[in-house]
Amino acid sequence: MGRFIKNKGTGTRPYGVVIPTTDEELRLTETHTGMMRYSESLESMEFFNGTDWVTIVTPGDVQLAIDTFEGDGVETIFTMSETPTSINQIFVFVGGVHQSPALGVNQSYVISIDTLTFLTPPPPLALISIIHNTGKVM
Q1: Total-model pTM
Q2: Residues 75 and 49 in one domain
Q3: What CA dihedral angle connects 5, 9, 10 and 16, to 10 degrees?
Q4: Domain identity same for 35 and 86
Q5: Residue 29 belongs to some domain of the structure
Q6: Would strands 21-22 and 36-39 be described as parallel, antiparallel, or unpaired?
Q7: Both 38 and 105 in a single domain?
Q8: Domains in the chain: how many in total?
Q9: Quick one: three-class SS letters along the chain?
Q10: Does the residue 11 lie in any domain?
């Protein structure tokens, strides 16, 4: 049976949920996937992903790196300034159109270390933008 939070109050009074607050040394020993807490030492929210506590970064706090290239209709291999640890850490655009990293018929590129390889060459003079979420907090 699931548990839920229910607020029977109505009107203009403010309501909120108190999130558990702990220190790094006092992390919970019994963890469950999806648990959330506020870390006093990191001064940020965290969630447990089933293996580790992961910091939830707020919008505007993550440093982005942007690589730009120009297509020539022939070249398919481009060297990035950052090395993503996952294909989910980059957004790729050609001529302002998002390119899909999905496997299958819609896949438009693959990555290997710091190299992005398009499956078909971008058209001549097309602006290629690769936006990296570096994960570095500013």
Answers
A1: 0.56
A2: no
A3: -50
A4: no
A5: yes
A6: parallel
A7: no
A8: 2
A9: CCCCCCCCCCCCCCCCCCCCEECHHHCCCCCCCCCEEEECCCCEEEEECCCCEEECCCCCCEEEEEEEEECCCCCCEEECCCCCCCHHHEEEEECCEEECCCCCCCCCEEEECCEEEECCCCCCCCEEEEEEEEEEEC
A10: no
Model confidence pLDDT, tens digit, residues 34-47: 888 888 877 778 88
- Partners of residue 117 on adjacent β-strands: 77, 110
Residue 92 lies in a domain: yes
Closest CA to 70 of 6, 135, 126: 126
Average pLDDT for the chain? 79
